[in-house]
Amino acid sequence: MIKGSAGIVETEVYHHPSPLVLESGDALSSVTIAYETYGRLNREKSNAILVCHALSGDAHVAGFHEGDEKPGWWDAVIGPGKALDTDRYFVICSNVIGGCKGSTGPSSINPETGTPYGAGFPVITIRDMVNAQKLLTDHLGISQLYAVAGGSMGGMQALQWTVSYPDHMKKAVVIAATGYSTPQQIAFNEVGRKAIISDPDWNNGDYYGSALPAHGLALARMVGHITYLSNESMHEKFGRALQGKDRIGFDFSTDFKVESYLHHQGDTFTKRFDANSYLYITKAIDYFDLTREGSLATGFAGVKAAFLVISVSSDWLYPPYQSQEIVSALTANELDVHYADIHSNYGHDAFLLESGQLNYIVGKFLSRTVAGDVMVRDVQTIEEGTTIAVTARRMINTGVNHLPVLSTGGQLVGIVTSWDIAKAVASNFLWLDEIMSRDVVTTTPDEPIEDAARKMEEHAISALPVIDGDQHVIGLITADALSMLVGRGNP
Fold first, then answer.
1. Which residues contact 322 (CB under 8 A, 6 or more apart)?
2. Choice among 85, 315, 373, 420 that is catalytic
3. Catalytic residue among 53, 215, 348, 402
4. Catalytic site includes residue 246
5. Cα–Cα distances in Å, from 35 out to 30, 198, 207, 458, 488?
6. CA distance 158 to 161
7. Edge-to-edge order in the sheet of strand 169-175
8. What is the DSSP letter of 210?
9. For the whole model, what pTM was predicted?
10. Residue 355 backbone dihedrals phi, psi, to 5 degrees
11. Contact at 8 Å (CB) between 277 and 100?
12. Percentage of the chain lying above the pLDDT 70 cut
């Protein structure tokens, strides 16, 4: 086994017996989700990272299946010591609904007919895929994911997670993706679908148990694969080299190596993927659009996650300007956003191949813990002008040792501790204003946790209010929480 491998893994299956209502209004009476996990879920269930796969991916994202020589599709960044360090994180990857690698899709048996769904499978969207993933995380007992990560269509799912479930994730890693599908992207997908549907063996989607529409699916894959590469990578790999010939044939046989390569990619793809799944998943990609009222910034209103957005310099399927649009929209919502452009000649496929750059950039982002990651959000407060007796009762009833003191306008003006209350009783003070500390040391949600801890140590304090730009208290960090964070070595 190679160093840093996640080891031998097995695909698991979750059966959700209740209906899943889809964005179209249709419903699946029940859902099966195939998934794999790597690493261990910590006691607080706070170290889970969901990885979302691209169009032709599946749940096998890392490690090896028993007897396999080839690891999972993103093994380069998942495993001990890698960006998604399985010694720290609990990594989950599931096959999307509509797929063909264990999750409910067109090749699954329709319980109402006892035969495969085929083209009778309801149209699904990226949002539907994410809703199914949420069912899985609920089943695993995870109330909040530490991060959701993915490239290409996986990046779209990560973005959808931030919109659909803003309180159920902390960080998003979005690689080589877009906030909405463009006409050109839709056009390429439509050519692929037309190739499949035009294959006589497609038989209106009812081909299971008979000849497969392999020719149409191979053509679709060939078209799609061209968009995953760059002109530079194709020139470097193939140039104008001939395939098994000394000179061009002046006919319609295969002359060039690049032609042979595409034929091989298409033929290989037909042996591992279902044509109907290709139709449904590409349609879901086409429908993807997070803009609202024509604005991506408006579409991200209400999002809370911290973001890492990565583009690829030579990607012409999802070019860097689309990642930059995402960054601008998130910045307009005053979110914590980090952007990186990977310099690579691999084109769109760089999100799978540039392991060095990805491990450095993603690993640094995920390991960067900020105050907002560990703060207590449900903060008990007290109003200035309150009596000490009322303050003491508030502390006793809520079981807290620190109470931020707020003005009538809700701004932070001080803080009081249980120790202050004890001194006040001994000194016969009556009013909170007589004992509260007005020179309050604070932090912000995007301040590195190391800096927050340093403040607490330098000022010998055991709690740190987290404030927003309007001096409103949005959280509280305690020394106990920091001790737990350092002690368990997890996010």
1. 177, 178, 179, 182, 311
2. 315
3. 348
4. no
5. 16, 33, 27, 46, 26
6. 5
7. 12-16, 31-38, 90-94, 48-52, 145-151, 169-175, 306-312, 337-342
8. S
9. 0.82
10. -65, -35
11. yes
12. 97
- Closest to 370 (Cα-Cα) out of 300, 464, 462: 464
Dihedral of alpha carbons 231, 234, 238, 244, sign: negative
* Catalytic pick among 46, 94, 152, 311: 152
Within 288-431, where are the H helices? 296-299, 320-332, 350-353, 355-367, 371-374, 388-398, 418-427
Measured CA to CA, the distance from residue 346 to residue 439 in angstroms comes to 55
Find the distance separating the first CA and the last CA of the chain, reported in whole Å: 28
- Please give the pLDDT value at position 483: 64
Which of 69, 73, 87 lies closest to 36 in space, CA to CA?
73
pLDDT at 188: 97
**Of the candidates 432, 119, 142, 417, the residue with the CA atom closest to the CA atom of residue 276:** 119
- The answer to whether residue 315 is catalytic is yes
Q: Within the chain, which residues score under 70 in pLDDT?
A: 1-3, 481, 483-491
The residue to which tokens 């590409």 are assigned: 282
Report how far residue 471's alpha carbon sits from residue 413's, in angstroms, rounded to the nearest whole number. 9
What is the 8-class DSSP label of residue 148?
E
Contact between 465 and 442 under an 8 Å Cβ cutoff? The reply is: yes
CA dist 427 and 423 (Å) reads: 6
Q: What is the pLDDT of residue 252?
A: 93
Report the DSSP beta bridge partners of residue 256.
Answer: 242
3-class secondary-structure state, position 91: strand
Q: What is the pLDDT of residue 425?
A: 86
Q: Which residues contact 291 (CB under 8 A, 6 or more apart)?
A: 179, 180, 298, 299
Spatial separation of the C-alpha atoms in residues 414 and 473, rounded to whole Å = 11
Is residue 416 classed as helix, strand or coil in its secondary structure? strand
| Whether 331 contacts 215, CB under 8 Å | no
Q: Give me the pLDDT at residue 423, please.
A: 87
Query: Any long-range contacts for 486-489 (C-beta under 8 Å, 24+ apart)?
Result: 488/42, 488/43, 488/44, 489/88
152 is catalytic: yes
Phi-psi region of 238 (alpha: psi -120 to 50; beta: other; left: phi over 0): alpha
